[in-house]
Protein 1
Amino acid sequence: MRKNSRWASAAHTLHARDYALARDLGLRRASHGGNNQRSGRVSPEANLMGGFQELKRTVRGVQDIQSLPLPVLLGPFFALIRSPISTGPITSAALSALHSFFACGLISANSVELEIALVELSSTVSHCKFEASDSSGDEVVLLKIMAVIHDCMVGSSVGGFLGDVEICEMLETVLTTCCQMRLSEVLRRSAESTMLSIARTIFGRLHELDPAQEEAKLRAHEDEPQHGDLSLSVPTVASHSQVIDNAVSPGAHGEETKHTEPRRGAFHLLLFPDLVGLNTCPLNRSHISSFADGLPALLELLHSTRLSALTILNATIETCGTRIGDYSSLVVLILDHGCKNLFQLARSDNSAVLQGALRTIASLFETMRSHLKLQQELYLAFSIDRLAAPPLPRSYTTKKHQTSSPRPGTPATSTPTLGPVDTELDLEKGSLVPSRPPVQPARGDTRDLMLETLSQISRHPSFMVDLYSNYDCDINCENLFERLIEFLTKGVYPWEYSSASEAQQLHSQYLCLDMLLAFVNDMAARARGENEAWKPDFESPEQLLQNKSRKKLVLTGAARFNSKPKLGLAFLEEYKLIYSDLSPEVSRTKSLAKFLKSSTRLDKRLLGDYLSRPENLELLKEFMNLFEFKDKPMVDAMREMLETLRLPGESQQIDRIAETFALVYFASKPAEIKTQDAVYVLAYSIIMLNTDLHNPQVRKRMTIEDYQRNLRGQNGGDDFSPEFLQHIYDSIRKREIIMPEEHTGQLGFEYAWKELLARSRQSGRFMMCNSALFDFDMFKTVWKPVISAIAHAFITFDDEYVIQRAISGFRQCATLAGHFSLPDVFDFVVVSLSQATSLLSENLPVHVPNYPVVEVERQSVTVSSLSVKFGTNFKGQLAAVVLFNIVNGNGNALREGWTQIFEMFENLFMHSLLPTRMLQMEDFLGGVTMIPLRGAHPSRSAPRSDGGLLSALSSYLMTPYGASSDNLVPEATDQEVESTLCTIDCIASCRLDELYAQIMQLDSEALVAAIRALEALAHERTIARLKQESDDGASPYSGASQSDGTYVLPYDPAAVFLLETMASIACHTTQFIEDLWPVIFEHLSALLSASIHYSVLLIERAVVALLRLALILAQKNTLRDQLYISLDLIANLPPFVANSVAEHVVAGVGLILQHRPSSSTQTEWNIIFATLRSTISNPEAARSTFNLVASFASEGPGQQITPDTFAGLLSTLDDFATAAGTLIQLPPPKPRRARQQPTADLPPIDRGRKSIDLIFDLKKIIAPVAESAKLQPEQVWQYYCLPLCSSLGRQSTNPCRLVRNTAINQLQRLLLGPQLVYDEANHSQVEEIFNSVIFPILDELLKPQVYLLDPQGMSETRLRASALLCKAFMHFEVAQNRRDADIRILWIEILDLLDRLISAEKSEQLYEAVSESLKNVVLVMNAASILVPPPAAEDNRDERQRTMWTATHARLERFLPGFLTEVVSAPQLAPLADSKHVSG
């Protein structure tokens, strides 16, 4: 306070007033010496205070203070602020007054002489000097200065009137304050805040300026002669005394800058490059030497300066980044120095600097992405390299990929890999991605910051599209899209061998998943139509996709070249990637050389080795000729050459390269070099000098003198000039020549940046468009790892939001799969979700345990192990609901995934969790029934036998209900019941019945895939299981066994369920039966071909399914042959199997006959009747079958007797008659008791009798059928009459008496009646009647075993048969008067049969009946002169008559002695001895 007291003295004020008054009146005041001394001491203060007195007087006489010129109003304050004798509080007060002027509007755009005042204001605040007092008070002054500058440039309307010089002065003042490390943190942060506001205000004007005009001004300014550059300088270091005196003073400019003529009224573009350059340049190393406080202080200053610069630059880019691109001078600055320095700072180990750099980079890409194509590529590649997980040890990866084989029934191609999916192609150990130097992996906070930045950069909907179209479709760029997706998908999985904390790792996984899901979400949005049209000025999408294809080939060829050059070149030539530009000017060698030089994917070491081979010398010369060495220094030429290849290890190869280089370089006529050999020597010397100066193992470095001495006399006998060699030496010393793959660290970055700048001259524009044109190719490339990553996240993460996002990702992937018609993708989604549901079972049991059943709300609920487990698995329930909601309505997009769907159905069925509709099975008898979970009867119905008590007991114990299952049912707890109810609710939410209904509406391809999946699962549980157990040897407890030892698989309800589902789907999709039939029939035929090894119910369902499908086939002309193949398969079932399914067979065949084509061949009819015949053994089925067959044979609308049906119908009726006899053939209950004939009212007997009548009635249609078919008599006899007679003949020996008697009666009526069609002139037909019909009857009746079947009735049948034999002989051979026919042999056979008949049964009744029949025959034969006795006189008989009589007499004498003599009277019988030669 004492220091400020002098400012309160009135004397000083009066003295100052006197001086002013004298000056105004033009008077000159004399001064005395003493007064002079005193005046000299107080004059500065008085003058400063006098200015304020003058201002007072001026203001008093002015009514409107706004009319005063602004310099007059502000002059005293400016003088006080600039005065070095002012103290901090006084200066602070003056600055506060200026701040108030701005606040009150005294300083505004309407102020008088505003521009002059602003110049003074800028100079004043920039050159403020005051005496230092306490540090806190001094910093208050600096804070006030910041406030005034802020008011001037930002807080008022006068900022637009500032000139560039004034702006630079004030910015420099603020920046200096920001960088003064000795100032308090609060002051520096306040200055930084002010700088941010100013930067936003200044750069915000870019939106208002005209880029063309401003660029023109900048070029004009550059053309004018400049006496000094307009630039900013930031003193970074100051002593303690300078903090107060020079804290805000440029110092270097002094007062000169104050008088520089400003360009007023606009923010010119001249200012912006300096500001941007200041913000982007890192701290120069030259500052290190000026620091006396050591490295810690230097690092603190370095980080502080960088942080301030990064903050300001970020604010600048956020403000005008979108506008900077319109100003070429600013774009160049950002693209080169700005990005380069930012990328270098992005490698900083300081977290604050790294955060600032990454934030600025994100803002840069956010606003200027269209100008930063190659810069973005470099940054993204660097980020991915640092963020990517380090490669795992080979042993771990080998072990990891040795996974178990996929579960049976699941297609191997669809099994998801719930781990990182490697998407890189490895061709013959070659890599598609050029080798990059290893980088230090980012860990901890660094990794989080880089991931957050990557997430920020990629948040645009078009980001991935832009990556793909600009980089992946550019042959000179990396596949950034594929690399990024690969990194993100692998980033979702936890790192192995990671030292990161669990929270950091989880955060990293969440970020990667979030970016993946954003990619999927954006693509799904484009698929919905939320996309942009491709801009016409961009390269066409077709060309880009063609470039992508070519790039893939080039990468593959390069990879093969890197493995084996010959294979690579052959591949490149095959796909016309080389030698396609051949012309008279371009040879094959030159074409190859151009490719080798331009391809950045080749291994430089292999390239150098390949080019330096002796056989490739011409190629090496063409390769060198591609370089432009004109006017290029030797060192630069060597650098350029060695950047394209690496020198091989052998000296001869190096020599070839050096010699070829010398040849080409000398041809460019370099200065200072006289011969080609001199170039050769220089090349070697540069290589050796580079090694000597930069090899750490060399202790004594080569000096310039050594280098000059080594090259003495090598320039054509002369020496190189010292300046020439000095230039070479300095160039190598400062910049080491490094091979491309050795560019690591800072050198690697410098090389990469150099390459970037070189490529930027040829790089096209960065295309930005949220187009859907590339989505198909993008999605097709990356869908598998993306879905695997989402599945892993869904299964392993517990965060509800993440799970919800993953669910959305699954749905969107499924939508995209349908949109792009990629069934593999949809399958993979389904497979991934199905594994998360826990509804898949590795080993589904055959037998269903006895689960407890409880009553809940009047409904029976089965509490199974699955229902309890699934009810507590919330994530599994989510997966199930999502899965089935996705599949519902999208079934046409599913292929292999149906396997998992039906596996879950199968598992749910086994645990009674499926909707009722899906548990039903249809047949032809009882309509709809439920599929039983347990077999209700033994696996095979064996013939009944009297096994006694033990047999009955064992049979009872073998049944499924033999054990007391009720006692084995466990009790269900309340918690288990609650879990089961949760499962039921979840299954209801899955809408399985809707999905099942939608399956019936699928397209052909999807439907076939569904049926194939069902068939594969069913095959696994039946045919494959049978084969496996047969190969392994069936366990005695694993299945049933028949009496003959045949192994039978136990009843498997899942197999029946799968079969029923398959058949039901096929029957409801008849329009696709041609596609479905081969798949289903393959399974059914395999089952029925081995029907004896499966349970009855399974085979029954297989037969029903086959018949249901056959009913459909009957209506499809194209599948007509398959109908009869199916029926033939059923017809050939083993008898006991056919008996068990007979009812279904006859019902099915009956329906088929109603819908079959009207015309069928005889073979087809035979198959139909064969199928019907297989049902006769079943009592219930036989009734239906007989009615059906009878309707064919009876007269009426149902009659279907045609030439094609006759044989089958006859055979079927014959079998019915035979079936009646099987009742007699069964073993009697007690062997000693005589067999009892069944009563006639038994159904089989009645059907047998009716069958005989129907067979007899068939004779009526023979003539009409023969006439309609225009058959010859021989054909009629052969195909109709003879089979009819043969059938009746066979049934004439039927064990059933009623059938037998009916048959022989009908046979007699047929043979002796008028309707028998045969050729009377053809004696062979008559012989067939006896040999094929009548004789077999007697032969069969003579068999003892036949006789014993019905001893009482067989005698009568023998009588009838003998009578029929004689009547038939008289009818066909005697009565017809066949004198020309030789009937001797037939007659002898008849006599022999009658002889055997009488001998077999010593019955008086039979003896008399045979005698009477023979008597009639003999008399008729005698009357017909066939059997003529020998006359007493001359014998006029012919040879046939003599032989006939002699043979007849001899045969009859055996069993009827004297019978012939008694019946036929003869005059005199010849001596018996005369006839001996003809007897026998």
Note: The first helix runs from residue 10 to 25.
Protein 2
Amino acid sequence: MIPKVANHLFLHTSRAVALVQNQSGALRNVLQSGPAAGAGSSWGSAGTGAGPGGAKFNAGSKFYKGYTGAGRAITQANSSAAQDGATKGDDEKEDIKATIVTSRASSSRHPRTHARRHSLSLPAGRNDHDQQMDVSVLQTVQMHLRQRHAFASAAAKEQQDEIEEIQHSRSVRTRRNSTASHTLSVEMAPLVPPTPADQSPPITKTSQSTSVAPNLVEETETESEDTVARSPFTTTLNDALIQEDTHVVIDHVQWLIDPSNSSPLSYPEPTVMDFNCAIRALVSLGHQTTPTLLVKLYHTLLARGLTPNLGTYIHMILGLTERDHDVQKALQLLEYRAKRERLSGRATANVEDVAAPESDEKRKVALLAEDNFATAIAIFEAACITAPRTAPASTEAGRRRAPLAVHFPLSVYHGLLRSCAAHANVDAAIRVYTQLEARSQPSRQSPSPIRADSPSRGPPPFYPSTLVFYHLLNTYVNAGDLAGAKEVFSEFRELISKGLLVHSEPKLKVQIQMWNKMMEAHFRAGQPAGALRLLEMMMDGEISKTDAAVAPPASSTFTTIINGFCNPSPSSDVTKNAPQPDIATALCWFDRLLQQPSASRNPYEPTRNPSRPDQVSWIVMLDALAQASCNNRVYLKDLNRLFNIHVKCAPQDGLDVRVVDTLMVFDANLHFLEEVAKARGAGVQIKGMEEQAKESLDFIARHFPNGTANLSGNHPGPYHLANDFARAYPHFVHFGMAQEGWEMAESLVAYEEKVILKSDPQSKGIPKFSKAALTNVLPLAFETAVSASSPTLVQTLPIVRLIGRLAISPTPSIASHHLHAYVTAPVESQQQLSTPDHEMILLCGLALPVQPSSSDIPSPPGCAYTGLMGLLQTMDNAHVNLQVPSKTMTRVTEALYANYTERDVSRFLDGLHSSFRALELPLANRTDDQGEVPRAPTPPPISTYPPDIPPPPEHILVDADVSRQIDQWFPSHPSLTVHDSYAALQASISTKPPRYPHPATLGRLINGLGRARDIAAAQSVYSIAQQVLFSPFLSQNPTWQSQAWFQIEDHMIIAYAHAGDMEAAFAHRDRITAAGGVPSPDAYGSLIECVKDTTDDTSNAMALFAECQMLGTKPNVYLYNTIISKLAKARKADFALELFQQMKANASLRPSSITYGAVIAACARVGDASAAEQLFEEMAGQPNFKPRIPPYNTMMQMYTHTKPDRERVLHYFNRMTKANIQPSAHTYKLLVDAYGTIEPIDANAMEDVFKRIESSRNVQLQGSHWAALINAYGCVLKDLDKAINIFESIPSHPSAKRSAYLPDSVTYESLINVLVTHKRMDLAQNYLAQLQASGVHMTAYIANLLIKGYAADGAIDEARSIFESLSDPASGVAAPGNHVPHDSASAPTSPHPISYREPSTWEAMFRAELGNGDRDRAVALLERLQQRQFPQAVYNRIRGIMLDDSVSPWGQLPQSQFQSLSPSPSPSP
């Protein structure tokens, strides 16, 4: 226990030894003499863990509300800040009758003599705590009554100014505990007549009334106002308060203050009840009013000759003390931020400073100018001399003539005493406590404990609450009055031991709080030995349990000890004799706590054995070390060491790694690095400083957030991280850690982009803080990373890409080096660049002269960039399809025509790819004032008229009736089809004279014909549309002509995409973008939906989505559905969910059942069952929900194959049937799998499902059902004969007669899988021959199983033969014929006579060769795979298998050969 801590301290801390010698042996007693043997503590043991521990303190803790410090705020950290709220209900119900105040004898059993108390009292001597006192706390506080404060008078004009200010600052109601400050100061007229200085407040008799504030009240004023009929004013105001209508509340308050203003309100003469209602309303509004407005309302009540009643005083005092509490919290925040300024630096001055010291100082001045505490005390004293009207003494009313303050609920006294403690005002606290004791004296015959909720008969005896004593003790502690604190503490111990205190909190918690606060008092007085004596008493009392008044220790107790050594006095105390921090001793205590085996669960939970540091302990220690590191770099190492432990152990100990602590530790390290730089500049060399600087840099890089950071809770602001990066980067460069510094830069940008997307998922905002920070360091970064003589694309590309992401204009130096690297790079490297890379290349070209001379580009030497035309030629040689944003295209066009003749530009562009034609002059003639917003369409030039279409007739009649007739099919018609409308079009243009529909009608017809895959008809309508578009009729209206032209082209994209002609679809997309337009979301949705049969459908779809976002297309529901579906199929659930959240954030869009089905499928495919279920329930709760079968099948499939759970499968099947959805063939296949593959296997139920399929009229028995049955018996139940018998029975089954294609390839695949599982490849050969003879197509998946089976059987030649018998599809095209639809009957027997390899086929063969030990063949296969140009992810996965395999050939290859097989990513086909 404690003695072992003492040994550690004595061995390692000289400060502790000196302290022991100077404190009369008290510390030695605590550290060396522990409790009796056999206590069983593990304090001195090494423990099983070396990490921190603990849990968060109560919600009232100041450490969880922003930038709060650990110094002075620790005095409230473990306090009962939330206790007011906890006891409020009981306080307000209290109805204690007043009695005459009489001095009571001390409750102490032995008389004691009290030392005189005031705010400057000091202990009489070292043993002052042992002196005997013979007077009670009441007798002592009565000596300190002072004259009451009064308010100065105010001008009426300032009242009107206040009203105008409130009118101007109306806002939506927010939380009450605001710390907003107001600078307006208003002096008020006296609230009560001043009392002579030598006279105490009259308590037992009333004072004479005055003309300003009568001090008599009606007999009924103490009754509940709810029993009185409400006035129209009160009713309206209460209703407004319930509805949170701030405007109405403010208007009514203003009417009370000045009814003569222009307000349209009209009510009868206001009463006290009206004013009380208004006061309550202002208190409820909190920060939306000013404290002076509250006082003005009170002053107006007095000015009207009304007498405040009990409710008036209660609400005024509660409002003012609550506001004072908020002000004190705000001042603590500002004090902590000012302390942080010592460590902080400003490296990004060109961005907004969110915590400017000057604004903090102004706010502090404004907060200090508020006089809420003095006002509350003055009103309280007014209540102390305000009594009921005179009545005969023989009556009940006469006996109750006591001041109104006697009737205050405890919550009023709690608020006043809390403010007294905050202001360290002992005099005021004594006056409040005196009046509190005047309520009633305790009965000597009833010493039993009375709790706040206990029933009583008649006038209850007075028992002060524990919270009263806590605030009273806190007042003396904050005032530095140790003697007074000791007396209050002694009285508390005596009363609690007798059960004479009302417990507003659990008894043990209150005791621990009081003992902790008394420890703090000793530290404040520079007597840590006294605090440790208290700790010794607590430790001994916990073991002996002989004294009920001794609190047991808890984790908060040790936090108090650590804080006492770290912050023995408030930071505002700058006196010479103020106790100084002892960080070394605190650190020794903290390190010993780290060695304890258990974490703290609650800061007030008694414990025999100390626990690991709790949350507040960590806050205190880290803050103290950070501040101490400014003067002693040794403490910086301790700071970093502890922070590493904190990050590692916080999750298991239930702690938070606070953002403010992370930034503080960063600031401490950066402050040290800046001091190192100053010393280096001054030529000062300090041993070990350079090594420690590198350690600090490594520490910062390790803990710096990146794009993977979790933003679910509180997270660092991008401004702070950008500022820290800008401060740190030069040091990274100086110490040779430029690469780590640049990784930090990329992390910063990714992090800020993630923050932006979180706040606005559809935002395209540029990370402004990252941009500001990187703009300053880019020249240094580029100089460090790039070779000055021969820059390469690998060196320049990462930096230039980051420049592009941040929209930073490249400098001439960066531009020349990057263009040199690009021009000199191999064509293969140039072809791997993306569209944003091409845009940055053009921007670099625009940063240099269009026709530079040798002197225009001094570096790099012999720069290969020869001019803008040469750059465009290089891009064309690399087969670049120029699709950069129109804004950049316009700038390039303008640069070309400004430096070359029109003929030269046209001749030059004619020799380039067609995409470069967009640089011709018509594009440059348009202006773009919208930045990156896509430019508005302009009338199409006649050059866009297709040459193979006859010229338009001179006269065209566009008939609205014809348009309506042709449009009848759209969007649906019970009998007419799109082909009927096409026939109607042909008929209308064949009449004399021909009549044509509107272009919009033609566009819809093109769309429908394309979806019907009738391309010939769609092209015919397109030709007609061109004749209409370029006819004189439309040419007279350029705007209509332009819009119609883009609509027709847009519909052609959709038509060709759905017809499967993607090349033609992209050609029409290029026509739109080349003309400065943007395809519609429907067009992009069609392109994404119809991109298939490629080796990387998902990447192509994502590229299209990124393109539409870049061009400014606003996604609609269809576009979101298509891209989310593509992502779901590729198991990219994170991105799918991100897009889904973007869609939900758009108020104009509502996800459909198709949307939910797609995103549910995304979660299901990656096994995220909780997210899938949550989304399913969300979908079912949508008002527009229409049950569809795919989401139900998706959930069933997830619980069948991904997360096997038969109960959940049946749950969703039952929900499907209850929703009146007819199960599909796939649904039944999943049921067969659920019974046949999920343990325990239920073969009977599986057979019942199969029979249900056989007898179903709606579902046809398919190959997938047979395959599921064969798989269950053969692979799961290991019954080979049964599986073969089932397969052999298929040709004779009635289902085979209805479908000529059974058994199909899926059925064969399942049987061969069974044979491979049972290692019966001798049988496999027979069935393979049967498959080939029946004409069933052998898919790649059947081949995969055969390769695996033959290889395992040692027949590697057979496996190779199977592999080589397959073919490869065209480059970039997915292998056809391998995916059989669910409905076997819908596909021919052998639609693809050639069998094509899948990536999985290559993988199967690789594994076979590796298992056979043939390294050369494995390498050869990898080289062939590389030549196939599969997506890089496929190549890397298979190559990774080779690397990870125990028989991998890589280990015996030369390094050069290994490098040759590690190519750069190939472009996706």
Note: The beta strands are 216-217, 387-388, 957-958, 995-996.
